[in-house]
Amino acid sequence: MSSLVALCHHRWSLPILAEIGRTRGSRFATLTGRLGVTGESLRRTLAYLQDEAVVERNPGYGHPLRPEYVLTPVGRELAPRAQALLAALAGHEDVGLKKWSLPVLTQLTDVRRFSELRAALPDTSNRALAMTLKDLEAAALVRRTVTTDYPPATVYNATAPGLRLAEAADKLRTPE
Q1: Which fold has domain 101-173?
Q2: What is the pTM for the complete model shown?
Q3: How does pLDDT run along the chain (176 residues), one tens digit per residue?
Q4: CA–CA separation, 102 and 132 (whole Å)
Q5: Of 169, 156, 154, nearest to 106 (Cα)?
Q6: Equal fold, 2-88 vs 101-173
Q7: Domain boundaries, the chain
Q8: CATH architecture of the region 2-88
């Protein structure tokens, strides 16, 4: 799970990875224009992706037509999966690209209680998990149900669109 959490830590990681994979390399200015990301956010995310050895500066950079950033072998493996995930996210990018949305969705393929989710995602705080569940429920990606047991319990599970996203997100951390 840590690789999925790591990739989702920066909002722009997946779009940058997909775009560089699609174009087989890109320049800084091209990425800002195509993705609509600010220069500072792009700088931070590219630095993070370089630290994770997913993206690297092109060693042959210098000619105006050569890309400034290219994918490493790990990045080339992840880029098609990121593209598939972004295609599955169509219409839900605002909530789906938040830090904890995809890791939470991958845990909700079965019905789970809040405490079970919290145990499965130890790096998240109670507040972050609660806010993520609320956002996913508002986007109709997660269903919240209060059981009729005594005492009542609240359980969560992914809806059909949420399950499709969870499957696509799971491929980012699972080799095919």
Answers
A1: Arc Repressor Mutant, subunit A (1.10.10)
A2: 0.83
A3: 347 777 888 889 999 999 999 998 898 889 999 999 999 999 999 999 999 999 999 887 777 777 889 999 999 999 999 999 999 888 888 888 888 999 999 999 999 999 999 999 998 999 999 999 999 999 999 999 999 888 889 999 999 999 999 998 888 874 44
A4: 10
A5: 169
A6: yes
A7: 2-88, 101-173
A8: Orthogonal Bundle (1.10)
